[in-house]
Specification:
Order of helices and strands: HEEEHEEEEEEEEEEEEEEE
CATH topology: Porin
Structural class: mainly beta
Distance between the termini: 36 Å
Shape: globular
Helix content: under 10%
Number of helices: 2
Length: 369
């Protein structure tokens, strides 16, 4: 490629300067890059006949005090005999692998993050890119962030050579974080997502007058979500947090999420965290457990139906070794139990409304250096 006066660094500086100029209130304090770190994790999800487990690795390294580069690998070995599978298809096993690379660039009070990722499984492939910029203003008391993600997916069907489709996703993010007092911080985030393409599953069936037919979904969808979060230091080596998220879309789905958590240090090495999360969702316009008439769109995807869930989780972190200014090694564990209850999805094996529990376990080591 011929030499050019245009460069990525110049573009990033321009974006940072533009945002800083628009806000017109930047401080003299510079943003710092994340610490160099390495992480290794084992994750396990089991519930409703679905098991997904595998390792994940992440490495972050800074360059010249202005750029921090990251690379990660995430692997899922999936085996499924879920309610959808056992009532309309055969149990299956497959592996999904996701590889991501990214970088953070700091310029004055702004941090710009760019990332690329690729996810592959036998019948689905995702390529995505993300760009985010965060700018501190008013002496570092306020942070404004903007973000954008573009994803392009390829959908296939195992056992049907030549069958494929595609879907594209666009996500736009806007965030505001405010230091309220020396002990309290609050954030407000808003996102818009637009989807276009094949948004269903080639394996899922719907029921019309009791007969199984392939589901039919619209090829476009727009959704929005707003989340308010507050975190406070209680003053005796403990803290609490609370958040509320509201979601709505053009399929008439509306969802509410409420979460509250509490964290506490025990000595110098242990940090414990516990939380509870409540979720409630209304059904899509064209969802039906057993439609009593032919319509243009119809689905029996329980994730588009009416349901609620209760999640109870706990995390524990142990600082194994620490040398101030040099490195720190931590061992972490997290467990969550989630109970799902569906209001309009029947288990055709029993005739009753379906419910399920899921267990999520994460064990990981983190090291900063």
């Amino acid at each position: 490629m011929a030499a050019s006066s245009f460069s990525i660094a110049g573009l990033l500086r321009g974006l940072a300067g533009l945002l800083g100029g628009l806000l017109a209130a930047s401080s003299a304090r510079a943003v710092t890059l994340p610490e160099d770190s390495a992480e290794a994790m084992l994750h396990v999800y089991k519930g409703g006949g679905l098991t997904a487990a595998g390792p994940a690795f992440l490495v972050r390294k800074s360059v010249a005090d202005k750029v921090s580069l990251t690379g990660s690998v995430y692997v899922d070995a999936v085996s499924s005999a879920s309610i959808d599978v056992v009532t309309s298809a055969s149990p299956y096993k497959e592996t999904r692998t996701e590889v991501s690379v990214g970088g953070d660039y700091v310029y004055r009070d702004s941090q710009i993050t760019l990332s690329l990722s690729n996810s592959k499984e036998p019948d689905y492939q995702v390529n995505s890119m993300s760009a985010d910029i965060a700018n501190e203003v008013f002496g570092g008391m306020t942070t404004v962030s903007l973000g954008y993600t573009r994803s392009s997916d390829k959908v296939g069907q195992k056992g049907t050579p030549g069958w494929f489709d595609s879907v594209k996703h666009w996500q736009y993010r806007l965030g505001l974080t405010q230091i309220l007092t020396p002990r309290w911080i609050a954030s407000l985030n808003y996102e818009v997502i637009a989807d276009d393409g094949y948004l269903g599953s080639p394996y899922r069936v719907a029921r019309v007058f009791g007969a199984a037919i392939p589901e039919r979904l619209p090829r476009t969808r727009s959704s929005r979500a707003v989340k308010l979060r507050a975190v406070g230091d209680l003053g005796s080596r403990d803290a609490m947090r609370a958040e509320y998220r509201y979601f709505w879309d053009t399929w008439a789905i509306k969802a509410h999420t409420v979460e509250a958590g509490y964290s506490r240090y025990f000595g110098e090495q242990w940090l414990a965290d516990a939380y509870v999360r409540l979720y409630k969702q209304d059904a899509a316009l064209f969802y039906s457990d057993n439609a009593q008439g032919e319509t243009l769109y119809v689905t029996r995807n329980r994730q588009l139906g009416t349901f609620n869930s209760l999640g109870l989780g706990a995390k524990l972190a142990y600082t194994w070794k620490r040398v101030p200014g040099k490195y720190e090694i931590k061992a972490n564990g997290a467990y969550e139990l989630v109970r799902f209850k569906y209001s309009d999805f029947t288990d055709v094996r029993t005739g009753g409304l379906y419910s399920m529990s899921a267990n999520v376990l994460q064990l990981y080591l983190t090291a900063t250096f």
